[in-house]
Amino acid sequence: MWHRGGRAASRASTVGPSSRRPPRERLGPPQVKAVFTLIGQGLGHRTRSGRVARPCIATCGGGAVYKQGLGDGHVSADSGGDLWRPAALSHSQIVADPQPQVIQRARHLSEKFDAWRAGVSGTFESMDLAPDLAETIGSRRWFRGLGTLIGLSALALAMWPDFAPVEAAPVMRLDNPARDEFRSQMIMPLALGSDSGRRMGATALVVPLKSAPERPRVELLATLARGDSFERMLRRAGVGTTDAERVADLVSGSVALDAIEPGTQVDITLGRRPQPGAARPLDALEFRARFDLALAVTRDDAGHLSLTRKPIRVDETPLRIRGTVGSSLYRSMRAAGAPASAVQQYLKALSDQVDLDRAVRSTDTFDMIVQYRRAATGERQAGQLLYAGIERGGEAKTQLMRWGEEGRFYEASGVGEQRSGLVAPVPGRISSNFGMRRHPILGYKRMHAGMDFRASYGTPIVAVTDGRVASAGRAGGCGKAVKLSHGGGLATRYCHMSRVAVRSGQSVRRGQVIGYVGSTGLSTGPHLHYEMYRGGRAVNPASVEFVTRAQLSGAELRRFRAALASLKTVEAGTALEDLSPTATEAAAAEPVREIDKLETPKRVG
């Protein structure tokens, strides 16, 4: 819409010297708006001769001037000789431009389109169709914006794309051989081109059978669950009541039914029903009753059930494991193949003799022997720990062996379970020590013949070492109390219990719960009052290095040492080797069928 020079500028140059215009300047955006206002005012003005006058605008000094010209470029006579008139533009609205510019009306199509677009934009802007919905809520302007939002949302939903599945290309190209192979496996009937006719739909020509034929034999596997009985397990598997009772009687003659371990699997074979609706008869039954015994029940030609015992050869050579302690004793023992339960027993037994955190170095050697059984059929079973030892460089070996009915560990010298230090009766802080103090209830000073441990109500109280319960019950100001006798003139008492967990005359082990923390008797709150006596006199429990010993002597000590020497002759890792089959076992393992003989490797030599 801007035009530099042009015809209008050349026609203006023909005017006399008095009409020479000053240098024109460039109009900025604010000036353009004012210029268009002036154009709009001058478009409808006509001269006396009937011609339409078009304004021409230019800048002059600090303002802007315009003149009215005819369509052919001549100046209108209505101007009264004043060719240029000042325009109402301020100095701040004028931007200097050294090149002359003249505003003309739009004549080309592109210019007309731009003018139309500007007009439409202005119209929609004046309509204010999209106001801010956060302002003037509830007003007419707000509802107008809400209507715009709803209309645009409806339009968007109407134009929502369709998500119909697209047909995928076949995974593989089918040639004629592949198509023939698939065709042979079709489920279509033979009349429609199938080669097999399997799973063909029933038609009117199909005659249903009066009774479906049953399998002549049924083989299944039943598992004895925990808390279940052997006979009930058989009946649940489908064995008749009469056969189940007969099998239970036969098995109980060889092994107690309640001694069969949960999880034992039983192979059951059921025969053909004698008549429809009757229970299937038991043809055969076989299971592993013990680690060293298998039982089999079979039915003979006369229809009677009989039991067959199948003893399994078992080797009970203990398993010995040796290795270096390394960075972690537990991990090293597990990496060497020791069972987790045996490792825990080893650490518990050895911790009573050696400080495993400080006295054991990474270069020391651990030695352990575990009960171990190997069956000729390949099964293996690990038992409890028999021997625990550790070899520390420059120090005496520590050797412990399990001995006796109680299963205690004894040293090689015959001294059993030497424990240095006392077990804390409760896991709490000491709130009052042994000595003179002011009694919190009586209010005067008197001897405090024990130690008070701060603990919450109901905390378990344990025996500090092995002993026998001398008394258990009410004890005056001590409230509910338990007194233990440990031999050698030593005794301990535990007061202010809320509940007693042992009875008088009972033997207790170190760490066994004997009661629970309370606040009975002369007590201001839940805590444990712990006392220790030597020869009947109260002593400070913190000053006693308590030791429990079980000494062997005489013939029993000799048997203990002989058993220890025999146990230490076991070589490490010997029990991990497979048992060599005997002649009978090798003959029983020979294949019976000719096809099995083909799969068995031939012996050479």
What does this structure look like?
It is built from 12 helices and 30 strands. It has 605 residues and is an alpha+beta fold. Among the domains are: 95 residues, Nuclear Transport Factor 2, Chain: A, CATH 3.10.450; 104 residues, Nuclear Transport Factor 2, Chain: A, CATH 3.10.450.350; 124 residues, Glucose Permease (Domain IIA), CATH 2.70.70.10. Strands 18, 21, 22, 23, 24, 25, 26, 27, 28 and 29 form a 10-stranded antiparallel β-sheet that branches. Strands 11, 12, 13, 14, 15 and 16 form a 6-stranded antiparallel β-sheet that branches. Strand 8 and strand 9 form a beta hairpin. The protein is flat.
In brief, what are we looking at here?
Residues 320-434 form the Csd3-like second N-terminal domain. With 605 residues, this protein is of the alpha+beta class.
* CATH fold-level assignment of the domain at 423-546: Glucose Permease (Domain IIA)
Largest sheet: 10 strands, antiparallel
Beta-strand percentage? Answer: 25-35%
By secondary-structure content and strand pairing, the structural class works out as: alpha+beta
The CATH architecture of the domain at 423-546 is Distorted Sandwich
- Indicate the overall shape: flat
Identify the CATH homologous superfamily of the domain at 423-546. Answer: Glucose Permease (Domain IIA)
Q: Percentage of helical residues?
A: 10-25%
How large is the radius of gyration?
Answer: 55 Å
